[in-house]
Amino acid sequence: MKPSQSAAIALGSNMGDSYKTLEAAIDTLAKIPGIILQAKSSWYRTKAVGPPQPDYLNGCAIFQVEIPPVLLLEALLRTEKKFGRVRREQWGPRSLDLDLLLYDDIIMDTPHLQIPHPRMRSRAFVLIPLVEIAPDWVEPISQRVIRDLASEVDCSGVHLLNSI
């Protein structure tokens, strides 16, 4: 493995004080050895996907990582749990949702981890914040840059959060 690779993480929350939770989650991840924050997007208010529930706050962050993807996923799951994430129903409300979107140009498909994230190319709430901080990152399956992928999704439900 290379000494340092880039990983794109999507963050979301629609329970409790989402802004504080998301900011604290980034700080928590950045304190883990082998994970260094490189960039974070603005926060966006988005309509929830799935059962009726409150709107989400969503954003993305880029980290330089010195740990393999599986260990990064474990760190994300531990961080979700630390912030009260309980998995009850698919696409249900959550205190914190962390998704590993991209890990350099790696393509991985295992029962527990798929990179790139299998639904990222169709989700405006992922692509809009990601294009803000990594517009030229090439999504390795489509071989297209994030900017182009974002231009092809309906962004009407994604609104920049101007102030907290």
What features would you describe in this structure?
It is globular, with a radius of gyration of 15 Å. It contains four helices and ten strands. Helix content is 26%, strand content 28%.
Q: Beta-strand level of the residues, as a percent range? A: 25-35%
- State the helicity in percent bands: 25-40%
Q: What structural category arises from helix and sheet content?
A: alpha+beta
Q: Give a count of the beta strands, DSSP E runs of length 2 or more.
A: 10
Low-confidence stretches: none
Shape: globular
Q: Which value, in Å, is the CA radius of gyration?
A: 15 Å
Distance between the termini: 40 Å
Order of helices and strands: EHEEEHEEEHEEHE
* Number of discrete helical segments: 4
Oligomer: single chain
Mean pLDDT: 92
| Biggest β-sheet description | 6 strands, antiparallel
Please specify the SSE layout and strand pairing.
Layout: E1 5-13, H1 18-30, E2 35-40, E3 44-46, E4 56-65, H2 69-82, E5 97-103, E6 108-109, E7 114-115, H3 124-133, E8 138-139, E9 144-145, H4 146-150, E10 158-160
Antiparallel strand pairs: 1-4, 1-5, 2-4, 3-4, 3-10, 6-7, 8-9
Task: For the structure shown, list the relevant keywords.
164 residues; alpha+beta; six-stranded antiparallel beta sheet; two-stranded antiparallel sheet; 4 helices; 10 strands; 28% strand; globular
